[in-house]
Amino acid sequence: MSSLSDLLMVRLCLLLWLLVKSVAAPDPAVVTMTVDDAACDIGGDDWRFDCFPQGTPAQTECEARGCCWRPPLKPRPPSPSGLTVPECYFPLDYQSYRTQAVSSSRGHGQVKATLTKGSPYPRDVRNIQADFFAHSTNVLNIQIRDADRERWEVPLLHNRRHCGRGQGSAWPGHAHSGHEMGAGNVLTFGDFLVTLSKPGQPFWFQVARTTGEILIESTGGFIYSDQLLQLSTTLASSLLYGLGERRGGLAVSANWTRVALWNRDHHPKENTNLYGTHPFYIARDARGWHGVLFLSSNALDVIVQPAPALTWRTIGGIFDIYLFSGPEIWAVTRQYTEVVGRPFMPPYWALGFHLCWQRYGTANNTRATMDRLRKFGIPQDVQWNDIDYAKGARVFTTDTEKFGNQVGLAGEIHSRGMHYIIMVDCGISNNATPGTYQPYDLGRQMEIFIKDLDGQPLVGRVWPGTTVWPDFTNGQSGRYWRKIAGDFHKKVAFDGAWVDMNEISSFADGSVHGCDEKNPLDVPPYIPGIADRELYKHSICHHGRHAASSHYNVHSLYGLLEANATYHAMLSIRGKRTLVISRSSFVGQGQVSGHWSGDNSGTWHDMHMSIPAMLQMNLFGVPFTGSDICGFFLNATEELCTRWHQLGAFYVFSRNHNSDTCRPQDPGQFGPASAASTRKALLTRYTLLPYLYTLLFYSHVYGDPVARPLFFQYPDDSRTQDIDRQFMWGPALLFSPILEPKQTSVLAYFPRDVWFDFYSGRRVPRSGQVVRLPAQYDVINVHVRGGSVVPMQSPGLTTTVSRELPFWLLVALDDDGEAKGQLYVDDGESLDTYERGLYNMVKFETQKNTLWSKPEFIGYHGNMNLSNVTVFGLQDMPTDVQVNGESVIYQFYDTVLYIPQVKVSLAKPFNVTWGGSE
C-alpha cells in the first residue's frame, strides 16, 4: 500500500477500536494483560511503536506489558542509530487513560482523564489534565500535566527583542487570544483545528490546520509515569529538519532514527548526544511547512519511523508542546523565535576573524601570532586565550609568572583596534588557600554552589583539580557572577567571554565520591539512548540540588543559564554590547550567546559536517555559530587547513582554534601560498560584512536564519532537500566550498534562478541542475542570486578600520532587470540602538535601468559614504550613466557595469541610471 493508504487504514482501525473500547474501560487495579490478536494487526511494520525500548525482550516479558510480540513482516538491518522494526509493540487498543471531562473557553480547551491501565514504569500519574492554549493565531501550546501535584516545568528566558538589557529567567506565559471556538470536542484556535476525545472515550487528540491537513495526532502507547513520559504521533510527511544538537546530514531520516538529547561533553560524533538540546523540528505538510517544539530539559529520545511517525520519550517534567503553523518556512522560524526568544545583536567587531590556540602558554606567544597574521596582511579582529592564561587553571585569575603580562596584552590588542576574549569555565576551584581565591570564598559566603545530599557543595574535578559549580537558578547568582567577573575585568579588560565545560562536564563521574546507585535521579528506571547509558558519565550526580530543582531536571539548561548570567554581567561591566560563545546550548540560547560545534577534528569529514551543524543551529534561532576552523584535535594538513579557512571565512562565527596536543595552525603557519589564500577569503568576508550585519539585524528583530540551507530559500525544489555541502547567507549569496582532498573543481547545484559568479559577474549558464565549477587552490566559489542588491564595504585588516572606509553596492539583476536589498547601520556596539532609533535603514530597488535608494530611517550619523556601484547582468553596454542626473565615468566588461566614482551619501536618497545602448 502507499504511505497515504497505510495512514488511512491505521486511522480507521484506531477509530474502530476507540469506539469498541470506549464502551467499558477496566480499573487499572484489575487490568488483564491479554492481547487481542486483531489489535496487533496494525497494517505494517512501519506502524509499530516500541513497547520495550530497553532492549530485546522475550515474548513473555512483552505480553506481560499488554503488548504484541511478533517478528517483523520484513526483517531489516538496524539503522545507523541502532534501531529496527520492534518485535514488541503497542496494540491498537492500548489506551492508558480515559477521558472524564472536556471543557473550553475563549482561547483555551481542556481535557481531564484518569488512568485505566498502568505502565511498566513506577509511579504512574493517575489523573492528567491536558490544556490547549492559543498562544497566538499561529502558535498553539499543548500542556499535559499531573492534575494532582506540581511537576518540573522548563523556564524560558524572557523574549528580548533588543540588543541590550534582557530580563532574567521566568516561567512561560500564555497569551489567550480570542478566536472562534467550536462546540464540544472540536475547537478552533486561529490556524488550528483541535479534535479531542469525548468523555468516556480513551484519551486522544488531533491537531490539524483549519484547511484540514493533520499536523499531529496522538497514537501508539501514551505513558505518563514519574520518570517516563511517552507520546507518539503521526507525521504529516517524512521530510523533517531539526532535532539537535546532532551530527549528521541536514534532514532527519525517517528510517528508524533515534535522536538522543542530553547535554554532554562529547566530541562531535554521529548517533550520539552532543553539547546541546533543541527538541524542535520543521516538517513539510500538504499545505506548506509547520514546526513542533517538545519543551523538555530532561534526557529524551526522539524516534522517527517510516510510517511516518514520531515518538517523544523523556524521563521527567510534563508534556509541553508548541505547534507553529507557518505555512511558509520562514514564518515557522519567526513563530518559533517569537516564543523562545529572538537572537541577540552582536557587536560589529564580532563579525571579524577570531583566533585562538590552547597552548599559547604566554602573552608573548599570543602576541607573536597576531604579528604573524599582520605580516601576511590577514584580517583579524579578535584574539582569544584559553585557560592557559589562568593561575592553576582557576578562572578569573592571571598567572603572571608563567603567562606573563596579560594586562599589557589586553591593552595592546585594544591599541590595534582589536578585541579580547577569554575562556571562563563554570567550575570554581575549591582547593586554593582560604582567603586567596575570591570566586570560591564569595561563593561559599553566598551559598551559591550546587549542593550534594548533605547540604554541602557537590565536588567534582575539572582543569584546576577539585571543583564546585555555581547554581545559576539561585536568585543571587547574577550578582555573584557580576562581582567576580567585574573585579577581574578591572585588572584585565576583556571584551567577551567563552563559556566552556558547561554541560556540566566533570572528569570525575558524578562526584569525587561517585553517586548513589540506588537514587532514581542518578539511575532512573529508563535511560534514553545517550552515550554510555549513564546520566552522570563525565558530569555530576543528578541528585545534586539547585534552588529551582534537582540537577536531574536542570542539567541540560545549565549552559544556557550560565551564558545568560555571563551575557548580562558583561553588559553591565562594559556598558555596551558583548560576545558570549557557549559550548552547551538549549532552547532559546540565541538570545544571549553564540555557539561553536565543540571539539571537532582536523579531518575532511569534520569540515563537511561543520556545514549542517551551522545550518541546524540557525534553524534553532542561534545564528552566531561556527566550528573550529582546521579542527580542534589532530594536525590538519596544509591543504585541508587552507580549504577550511576558505569555508570558515563564511561561517557566521569565524574562528580558528585547536588543542594543546596539536601544532599551531593559524593562517600564517603554512607558508605564503596558504596565507595568501586565507587572506583572499577573509578579505572577501570583510567586504561582505555590511550584508552579514544586516542579516544579523533581521535575525535579531524577526528570527530569520542568517546561514541558510538551500531548501529554506527554495522549499519547493525537491533537489535542495538534502544539500548540506553548500549553504547561503540570507537570500542573496551561495557558497560552494571544496570539501575533499586534491580537488580543483566542485560540483554545485544551482536552483532554478539567475546566478552570477561573485568575483567576475559572469552568469551561470545553467540553473536547476548541478554544475562543475573550477576551484583552484585559492578559490571558494561564491555566487550572487539575480534580483539582489548586496551592500559591501572596502575591507581593512580590522573592522575598526573597515567601518571608516567607503561602502559599495553590488546589484545583481534578475531576468526582468530588477533587484532589491537592504542595509542596516549603527555604531556597532551601543545597547538598544534599534529601540532608541540610533540606526539607519536604507532600502535599494532597481527597475527599468535605474537604481533607487530609499533611506527609511536615519538616526545614526557615522560613515555612510558610497564610493562605487557594480551591476551584474546587463545585456548591452550603456551609452550614458548618471548619478542623481549627472553623467559619471563608468566601465563595462561583457555584462558587468562598474561605476567607480559615485560619491554620494547613503543617508540621503539617490538614483543611478544607465541608459541607451550601442
From TrEMBL:
Keywords annotated in UniProt: Disulfide bond, Glycosidase, Hydrolase, Membrane, Signal
Keyword Hydrolase included in the entry's annotation: yes
Record flagged with keyword Membrane: yes
Record-linked InterPro entries: Gal_mutarotase_sf_dom, GH, Glyco_hydro_31_C, Glyco_hydro_31_N_dom, Glyco_hydro_31_TIM, Glyco_hydro_b, P_trefoil_dom, P_trefoil_dom_sf
UniProt subcellular location: Membrane
Domain P-type: 38-92
Pfam family, one: Glyco_hydro_31_2nd
Cleaved signal peptide residues: 1-24
Protein name as it appears in the record: Lysosomal alpha-glucosidase isoform X1
Phylogenetic placement of the source organism: Eukaryota, Metazoa, Spiralia, Lophotrochozoa, Mollusca
Gene that produces this protein: LOC101862363
